[in-house]
Design brief:
The chain is an alpha/beta fold. It folds into two domains: 127 residues, NAD(P)-binding Rossmann-like Domain (Rossmann fold), CATH 3.40.50; 239 residues, Dihydrodipicolinate Reductase, domain 2. It is built from 16 helices and 16 strands. The strands form three sheets. The chain has an eight-stranded mixed β-sheet with strand order 15-14-13-9-12-11-10-16. Strands 5-4-3-6-7-8 form a six-stranded parallel β-sheet, sandwiched between helices. β11 and β12 form a beta hairpin. The longest helix has 18 residues. It is globular. The N and C termini lie far apart (63 Å).
Amino acid sequence: MKKTVIGRLACLLSAAALLAACCGNKDTGSTVSVIKTDVPARPDGQENVIGLRTDPIDTVRIGFVGLGARGAFAVYRYTNVPWTKVVALCDVLPEKVDNSTNFLVEQGFEAPAGYTGLEGYKELCERDDIDLVYICTDWAHHTPIALYAMEHGKHVAIEVPAATSLEECWALVNMAEKTRLHCMMLENCCYDFFELTTLEMARQGVFGEILHAEGSYLHNLSDYWDDYWENWRLDFNYRHRGDVYPTHGLGPVAQALNIHRGDRFETLVAMDTRSVNGQASFNAKKERSDYFEGEEAEAFRNGDLTCTLIRTVNGKSLLIEHDVLTPRPYDRMYQLVGTKGYAAKYPVEMYSLRQDGLDSLGIDYHIDNQHAPLPEEVVAKLHGMFPSPILDDELEEKAKKVGGHGGMDFLMDYRLIYCLHYGLPLDMDVYDLAEWCCLGPLGEISMDNGCAPVEVPDFTRGAWKDADGFKYAFADGSMK
């Protein structure tokens, strides 16, 4: 009893200390308690890696770590990506390595080297004939593998979320800055075709000033919990509170808002529901498995639904939701709300513009009902007027043929290799990684302290002001 009381008192004192700092509301003059987060000083000798360019690589030699569903399918996709060679494969389970090796050989490729076991990735990273380590493991191993790979001179591409704590976010930022190597999170939803077109429309000012954005990951996983190796995904939700998988919804809208390219996240507030289905899933899993032996079922941390509100330095707002435990239909809730227009995807794709906006674009259509979205024929014209600069008909056709969530996975891979091959800045950098991944740990802090506002650390350490809007890099030297 004495230890319990002392422990609770320590928690209360810690929370009180965190809440002691206050900041003023610029608009009303009122003060709001904001939990501060540390921004460690940049280590001596390091510089930011915004716009990082590295030497061009004629053939990008790749080592894959993690060959479950995502990793094995990535190996397949890379048999269709130019300028690449699969050099090595690694998984905890030898049969996974064998399966992907056999596939490559059947396709006429040279058999890659194989590594197995929990630390097999170290031997892979220590090779001197690998340029890129492509990481598709469970979340807990993403950052340790990426750090080891960069320490050994390799660029890294990491499945989402690349980091699960603020410590991991900062570790990846510092390692990327120290080694001057690319560290990219594989956020495929930034390459979905509607999002690409809408991003181009936003960059061209079609929606006016973007004031608000929404994104989500609503995906009922009740039929999939048993598919995760060693039950790692349900286990992570059991132990962590908050939006543990924010990046699919956050990534595309963050690009439209030019995050760390003229604006940045400033504060967030998070809240959740109580755990009902999560608790039930845990109890059912515990009954038929000894994986949770000794764990207390009532300790399930994550709520069935989490909402996070973010405000940027420039006064924009974002709403991000996470729900993998209720029977809602799949939804990424992509929305942009601008002063002159609106875009949304899920459950249907739609645009709304003001009449003067249509007129300025030369589109001959009269809006009779401002409360309704634009009709399909107008949407088709808009798509034709604002193609993404990274797409052409041939590449789009190939992406859809190769596949991967409709083709966006292949397009993501293609752009990564294109930029490495030509020595260009990547579309997504280590700061995107940290900014998009930090919602989980920051949301947990917010909810554990009565849904208090929490400061979002500036992972760029001030360099967010140096870039002027989101741009793609091209082999001809242009930035579009």
